[in-house]
Amino acid sequence: LARGFPPPLSFLCLVDDVTVIKVYSEDNTSRAVEVPSDITARDICQLFILKNHCIDDHSWTLFEQMPHLSIERTIEDHESVMEVQSGWGMDSHCCLYFRKNYAKYEFFKKPLDFFPEHMVSVSSESNGIMNHSQLIQTFLSSSACPEIHGFLHAKEHSRKSWKKFYFVLRRSGLYFSNKGTSKEPRHLQFIAEFGDSDIYTLLSAKKVYGAPTDYGFCVKASKSNSARDLKLLCADDEQTRTCWVTAMRLFKYGMQLYQNFIQPYQKQKSSPMRSISENSLVAMDFSGHKSRVIENPSEALSVAVEEGLSWRVTSPHTESIHVAQPWFHSKLSRDEAQKLITQQGLIDGVFLVRDSQSNPRTFVLSLCHTQKIKHFQIVPVEENGELFYSLDDGHTRFTDLLQLVEFYQLNRGILPCKLKHHCARITL
């Protein structure tokens, strides 16, 4: 600093087992906090959840980003943040990001969405294809031998071009076949193992690395920060990349990942604090002597509209009520919306609402389903001097965007799935 060099984006200062770290949010605001030197990624997430009054839905995550390599990864909840930072070079400008990652443990809940059947098999001793109900147990068992296989693009450091190979991922490491799809030992060449390596996604696979698609990832040795040492790989689609990266995480951490997944729920059982889950929202009728759940979607809609209309009478500013909602992202472009949803997890039901750039009077609902992001126009409808909003050309109408979102959180309607997880940005 005395010579005029700028400090790295994230830094640490160790004094008597206390460390000062700097953490960034998605809007690039940052906060420096003093923490114990043995702090884990989950501890830091809990700290920022409390400081920012966030709802703890177990999706908040700490990310490691290396701008000079254009790569990033999820720091697992149990990992020591000091150990992660100790691998950074002084001039690397690596940084920590705090944001949501709804997909972090989704593979424990829905393995079929993460491991396509044509990419998964087990050893010959287990008689071929693995039953998906036992798939996660197989990954967690040190005695079982699950295998991921399929084609990936790979880039050799001595060449500028990418080439497609048949890859095989086993507990012992990652291999590629030098003879078609042969898995014979003499045809498999070792690429990497995961004991001293981490798995990163490429932030700009095409632009920075000349990859054939944007679904790039890499294996990086923990003690290396050189682009020459990256094992660069690229999939043809998001589902394929997700399968490979998830399997590598499971092989690297095994049972520890499962412990990370269940730990918050174990604490929840012993704590009276109420949490909000994706299934906690239901339509209720309180008009009678006893409350009841409204299961009929048509009835739920009519009740919602009636409540919205009566509420509108006493609240003259409902047209702009959406501006204060965490799921509303105003002047976000289509590309920015896709990037934000991708960052926060490509699982069913991740969504946001934004202004339409093509029509200033309308809005757009951006929603993830089957690891693809779809965009739905929200059109204003006028009737008898009153303004309503609709996703289905006026068939289903809502007095404001808040009512629309709340309805589709309860009912799928014309959408491919219900709205479950909103993309949220916070300022640290």
TrEMBL record:
Pfam families: BPS (PF08947), PH (PF00169), RA_2 (PF21989), SH2 (PF00017). One of its GO terms (biological process) is insulin receptor signaling pathway. Keywords: Cytoplasm, Phosphoprotein, SH2 domain. SUPFAM superfamilies: PH domain-like, SH2 domain, Ubiquitin-like. PROSITE patterns: PH_DOMAIN, RA, SH2. Its main location: cytoplasm. It is found in: Cytoplasm. Residues 327-423 form the SH2 domain. InterPro entries: BPS-dom (IPR015042), GRB/APBB1IP (IPR039664), PH-like_dom_sf (IPR011993), PH_APBB1IP (IPR039665), PH_domain (IPR001849), RA_dom (IPR000159), SH2 (IPR000980), SH2_dom_sf (IPR036860). GO terms for cellular component: cytoplasm; plasma membrane. Residues 17-103 form the Ras-associating domain. Residues 145-253 form the PH domain. PANTHER family: GROWTH FACTOR RECEPTOR-BOUND PROTEIN (PTHR11243), GROWTH FACTOR RECEPTOR-BOUND PROTEIN 14 (PTHR11243:SF22). Belongs to the GRB7/10/14 family. This is Growth factor receptor bound protein 14. It comes from Sinocyclocheilus grahami.
